[in-house]
Amino acid sequence: MSDRRIAIVPAFNEAGNIGRVVDELRAFDGGFDVVVVSDGSTDGTVEVARAHGAHVVRLPFNLGIGGAVQTGFRYAWENGYELAVRCDGDGQHDPSELPKVLGPVVAGEADIVVGSRFTGAEGYRSSAARRVGIRLLAVIVSLIARQRVTDTTSGFQALNRKALALFAADYPHDYPEVEGMVMTIRHRLRLQEVPVQMREREHGQSSITALRSIYYMAKVLLALFVGLFRRSVVPVE
Amino acid sequence: MILAAQTPLKVSIAATVVSLLLVLVVFELIRSRRLRERYALLWLLTGVVLVVLSAWRGGLNTIAGWFGVRGYPPAVLFAVGLLFVIAVLLHYSTVISRLSDQNVILAQRLALLESKLDDRE
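YS: structure for the whole thing
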């Protein structure tokens, strides 16, 4: 039981991608249980994921990425998993990159590892405005964390049970990765970034549009600022 | 020295009637169980304070004097009313936030429970 591993895949209407994501994860390492958290999908994501052998947790309505991912963390925590990876359901995270993300957690060097698109890896294109936003957040988070961080929006992560405990108890709602990083640091968990390559989406649209990214920046900055004045949710060692 | 302005009697009567109406409506809402006591308290307080300030002209004039409102004492009624409305709205924002947090937790619990049932089939 001690080395049970799980891959958490949040998915909102990803029927076109989810089958392949699940297949690739299972092919990567048969020791991984795959749980797909369907965030109020209405397009057959649940059925496709099940047909491909994933365990499916089906939210009754759309909670947003944070609520969906946290559901996965709670599932992993309550079922006693020691190690979890998180991949997006749209296929942009390549399971063959998983060893890089998993490495430091397995070796006990980090509690949470984030796959970064920017520390030296190529192959990722993004709009200019979005890049600026991501850079700005990276600078702010680096300052707060007193640790260099390059990609604050990556959902390609590996976590051990300590990190699962924190995020099962409290996880930010709308765009959780940035705040999640700061929470990690403030709870004195060891955060590490590794370079990974990400793929383009295969089907459908990314959930972040241009107009929403302004709202996103404002909200995240507010959350970061207020978060500095918040107490720990789980005991800090 | 210029004499400070007084609250006109008609304004006082009209404001008292409207404030009393507010208190009565809130009371009726509680009585018919359409408004819970915990959410009604701020409204009742608002109504009672407005009734007192509207009916008690001397008091309103004095308070207006304290805050340097020389021209038109009933302006204090507006200020007090506005302040209470802001307080009530802020209170409701916290209530909505709490409800939506609880909603998320309920949805997650339900989904996890359902997935356990799926496992047994």
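YS: worth flagging: The helical segments of chain B are 9-31, 37-55, 57-66, 75-120.
IM: good catch. Also The longest helix of chain B spans residues 75-120.
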